[in-house]
Write a structure and sequence with these properties.
Elements: E1 16-18, E2 23-28, E3 35-43, E4 49-56, E5 65-71, E6 82-83, E7 90-99, E8 105-113, E9 127-133, E10 144-147, E11 152-154, E12 159-160, E13 166-172, E14 185-190, E15 198-201, E16 208-217, E17 220-227, E18 232-238, E19 249-254, E20 261-264, E21 270-274, E22 296-301, E23 310-315, E24 333-339, E25 345-351, E26 356-362, H1 364-368
Antiparallel strand pairs: 1-2, 2-26, 3-4, 4-5, 5-6, 7-8, 8-9, 9-10, 11-13, 12-13, 13-14, 14-15, 16-17, 17-18, 18-19, 20-21, 21-22, 22-23, 24-25, 25-26
């Protein structure tokens, strides 16, 4: 099928061709909820796609819960979201989606207590829960607690390594006076498909969070991380399937204390989605919240994250320039990047100050700019539904 060439995003989930960018785009229907944040994507075995996020009044409030929308293979629109979770006493956040060995879709997410007087940030009370769907995200079972350690937080999905090991990037939130600066990265590791887990901590990783685990070659892993100090994306290495990790070091990519998403592509390149900004004159060890979460870029590396010579802005936003121009530039944040079985890339992120989730689909060549149609002209044959 050919997707429609319409004027722009519509909140009914219609997928359309952005002729200027050469991409497919849609606004996933927000449903009845006031805000939408922290999306996750998953392609099912039958080619359908799921998008989950947390929705409600505002992050950290007890009415925040997880929802999930579907796009059937061959469809030109995203369906209305269905409720996954609802705990009237906890704020449920940061979902990730994983195809479990039991044939179910696993939704892993955090659940923290509602705000208390004098404490706006309650992430140190978080636990990690799981819910399963056996019908492709249409309905969801009851929640169970997978990691009861208070302060446990997550964002990226469980990764299955080449040796069959499961590794799940976490960080441990503490009740820090200075705004989350003490949060170290830790990994939950299972060698029996989730029946039991061990905890592995990353040394000297305070402030480096949201670990994206990528297996560059068998047994050799990297973790790319958000920085609480709003300076750079950080990287750590493991040569033993995640049993030990190096101290995080800065990469060449800036980070604004906002989430990133990284994966190894079928081509062998490393891809990362991020906001290419940071706080002016960042100081290592000092938490910073620059506010500017625009534009959204995708960068490619051919050397395992040492350099990223290919970068393209996939979301330009309002396009205003100037340091900390948050008055005119909306927020486009928390990107999630995945690659479908057919090689096409799929990107989702919170859109325009969290009024909804934006979905964008494109190719690796679009990022590289190696074909004429990838720099603004659209090739209709590339829009055939997979």
């Amino acid at each position: 099928m050919e997707y429609r060439h319409i004027g722009g995003l519509t909140p009914d989930g219609t997928v359309y061709v952005n002729d200027d960018m050469g991409t497919l785009e849609a606004m996933v229907p927000p449903g009845k909820y006031a805000t939408a944040h922290a999306p996750a994507l998953l392609e099912l075995e039958n080619g359908d796609m799921l998008c989950a996020w947390f929705a409600g009044s505002f992050e950290g409030s007890k009415d925040i819960s997880i929802v999930c929308a579907r796009k059937e293979k061959g469809s030109d629109h995203w369906e209305e979201p269905v409720a996954v979770s609802y705990d009237s006493e906890r704020s449920e956040q940061n979902p990730s989606l994983f195809l479990g060995p039991d044939g179910a879709v696993w939704c892993m997410y955090t659940a923290q207590l509602d705000r208390m007087e004098g404490k706006d940030n309650m992430q140190f009370t978080s636990i990690i829960r799981r819910q399963k769907s056996f019908d492709g995200g249409k309905t969801w079972g009851e929640a169970d607690v997978i990691f009861p350690q208070e302060g446990s937080f997550c964002r990226q999905p469980i990764q299955v390594l080449s040796n069959g090991r499961w590794i799940f990037g976490n960080w441990i939130c503490t009740d820090s006076v200075n705004g989350l600066e003490g949060d170290p990265t830790a990994f939950r590791i299972s060698d029996d498909q989730g029946k039991s887990w061990k905890l592995v901590e990353m040394p000297e990783s305070n402030g480096a969070v949201h670990a994206n685990v990528v297996e560059l070659e068998p047994g050799k892993l990297i973790a790319l991380m958000r920085s609480r100090f709003a300076d750079f994306v950080y990287i750590s290495h493991s040569d033993d399937n995640g049993d030990t990790w190096t101290k995080p070091e800065p990469t060449v990519l800036p980070n604004n204390n906002s989430s990133i998403s990284a994966l190894k592509l079928q081509s062998g390149r490393l891809a990362i989605a991020y906001n290419p900004t940071h706080v002016p004159n960042p100081q290592y060890g000092k938490v910073a919240w620059p506010g500017l979460r625009c534009p959204v870029a995708v960068a490619l590396s051919e050397d395992g994250g040492k350099t990223f010579p290919m970068v393209r802005l996939m979301e330009r936003g309002e396009g205003f320039s100037g340091e900390e121009n948050t008055t005119n530039n909306k927020q486009y944040e928390y990107p999630y990047l995945m690659q479908g079985k057919d090689g096409r890339l799929h990107l989702a992120y919170a859109y325009k100050n969290r009024i909804g989730i934006k979905y964008v689909s494109f190719t690796e060549e679009d990022v590289m700019g190696s074909k004429r149609e990838t720099v603004g002209l659209y090739n209709p044959t590339a829009a055939q539904s997979r």
